[in-house]
Each structure stands twice: as C-alpha cells, then as structure tokens.
Amino acid sequence: MNPYKYNKQVWKIVLLFFAAMIGIASLLYTNYLVKNLSTSERTKAEVWAMSTRSIMSMPDVDDEFISFVYAVRDSLSLPAIITDTKGNIIFWRDLDSTKTNIETEVEHKKGLVYDTDYFQKQLHTMKGMHPPIMLDLDTGESWFVYYKDSSALQQLRVFPYIQLSLIAIFLVIAYTVFNSIKKSEQNLVWVGMAKEAAHQLGTPISSLMGWIELIRLKYNAENDDVVNEMERDVERLEIVADRFSKIGSTPSLSNHNVYLVVNDFMNYFKIRTSDKITFILDGDRHVEAMLNVPLFDWIIENLLKNAVNAIGTEGTIKVSITENIAKEEIFIDISDTGKGIPRSNFETIFQPGFTTRKRGWGLGLSLTMRMVSYHKGQIFVKESEIGKGTTFRIILKSNLKYEPTQV
C-alpha cells in the first residue's frame, strides 16, 4: 500500500467525518430551537385571535378590562390575517402600513393606499406556511387566522446554512494556508538537501576525472572505448551535481533545437538500457524553444526511466516532437508499451512522495513537473491504458515566430 495515498485518504475521511458531525449537530440544534419558537409563535397567534374575537363579542364591561384585552391583542408582533369562511379579510396585523390603509384623499397624498393584490399575496404566503387557526363565534360563524413566521424565526431557519458555509470557507482558507506553509517548508528542506548533495559530490567527481586521466596515461588508453564511456559517465555525474546545485534558483534559458537536445540524451541513455527495449525518436527536426539543457535532460531522463520501469523487460519507447503552429507551442509526447496508469492517478503521480514501486522516494515526476514549470511549460498524462502503455505530453512555448500569409 502506498503510504502517501493511504495517509491522504485517512486525513480526508477524518476531516470529512468531523465536518459532517459539526454540520449535523448544528442543524439538529437549530431545528430544535426553530420548533420551539414556532410553537411559541403559534400560541401568540391563537391568543391574538381570541383576544380579537373577545373584543368583537365583548359586552359592556369596565374600561380597565377592555384596556387589558387590547393590551393582550396588541402584544402580538407577528404578521397575521383573519378571514371569514368566504375568504374575505376581516382583520390584519403587522403588514406593510403603506399598503393596508383604506384609501382616502389625505392618505392618498401621503402615498398610503389599500392594495388588494398585496393582501392576497400575503394571505397566499401565510396559507403556505401554517395551517389556519379556526375560531367559532357566538353567531355561529367561523373565522380563520393565518400568520407568518417572525423575521427572527425566518433568520434562524437559514442561520445554520450560513454558519456552515462560513465554516467551510474558513476551513478551505485555513487548509490552503497551512498547505502552502507546509509545501514551503518541504521545498526549503529539499533545496537544502539538493545543494548539500551537489556539494558533497564535487570532491569525488573531481577525483574520478583525475583517475581517468591517470589510466589513459599509464595504459596508453587515449582512444579506448571503455575509458571514453567512463569519462562520459563522470561528466554525467558533473551534470547531475550541477542540476542539484541549481535547485531553488531560477535557471537561465537559451534557444535550442529541441530535436537535437532530445536526440543527444537518448543516444546517451539507450546504450545504458536493455537491448530488448527499442527507442524511437521522430517528428519535427527544426522546432526551437528556450531551454536549460541540463535541466531539460533531467526531464527527459526521468520520463524515460519511468518508461523503462513500466515496460520491465521488453517493449518500445517512442518520443514524438510536433509543433502547433497556430498556438506557437511544441508538443513532446513520450510513449511506452508498459503496464499503464489508472485514470484515478493521473494527477496524483505528480505529487511528492507518490510511488507505485517498492523502492523509491516518489520525487521523480514531482521534480519533473517543477522543471517543466521552470521552462514555462506544462506536463500531464495524455493517455494511458492498463496493460498497453502510457503517453506523457510536455508542452513548451515555441521560439519560432510565424507571420500570417498575406493574400
């Protein structure tokens, strides 16, 4: 099991679980408060309806009792409407005062009107919110009381969703910030290790170059093929050390023929690989791009090594170089006939620490993506099929400019 993938999945599950628990707890408690407040408001609506009925049917009583009943009725702070059995509006409470006035000349000048459509819309809304409260009058008639939730209750209904949205936004921001800090710390560690490795390699490489020269002089091996290949390998070590020393700094780019750069490295690489693996290079031989050759060779090396590992014993590796003239881009496709990559891993394979091999740090493709970005390019898995092979695509900006044809 890949520890990187496993740990990432565990953390995702844990965070998702706690987020779900917070959300459920918030919704349950809010629904509990809404239910209690809704019950309280219905009771207020019933009290208002009964007090209104009492006023209508009240016999002559002392002024103090009448004042008390009016005070009870006016204590309600809910929008409410009373209708008869035919749906005619009899009384209302806490509606828009500019639209609930019987039209008179004075009120009309003040902008106060009696808006019938407004009443019907409010009544329709109230009917959709709660079942009516029915009141039986002494005359044998019945009244129906409709009401709306108070603004506090309406806000409380949407509060948990606003709260969860804010929590989600906060978590996303916090995750992004901490992830950025973590990546910065990791980058500093890798840069330090790379530069230290380059420094440590310097002395033995210089010694190896001296030993090779000594072998040539002692055994008269000036043109010996084995010694020449040894020298090429030591020079390769120098290039590798130089690569590590440049990690963390902006590389210098210069114009190069892409086909020639790739061809030079493939000629070096393929003689150090099994004869059962066939290398093919084709495509446009004239395209040019701004490259840092040591770093670009490292990109090709990582991709070719991955292709060799994916193939195993026998297969084909093909590198195709084409140009998209319209977009002034160069496409470099590295294809192999290896075991393939699951589609779910197309993005994950470029993350530090991800590897499908029993041995390895899982840094090759991560460094490759970093180096491609140094060249202001892109890299991605173009296509892959399990058991048939994989194609990686590198996109670089072409350094050749084309003028539109004049008609």
Automatic annotation (TrEMBL):
Reactions performed catalytically: ATP + protein L-histidine = ADP + protein N-phospho-L-histidine
Protein's UniProt keywords contain Transmembrane: yes
Pfam families in the cross-refs: HATPase_c
Cited SMART domains: HATPase_c
Transmembrane portions of the chain: 13-34, 158-178
Domain of life the protein comes from: Bacteria
Keywords: ATP-binding, Kinase, Membrane, Nucleotide-binding, Phosphoprotein, Transferase, Transmembrane, Transmembrane helix, Two-component regulatory system
Domain Histidine kinase: 196-400
EC number, as in UniProt: 2.7.13.3
Entry GO MF terms: kinase activity
Keyword Transferase: yes
EC class of the enzyme, as a word: transferase
Protein name, as recorded: histidine kinase
Biological source species: Sphingobacterium tabacisoli
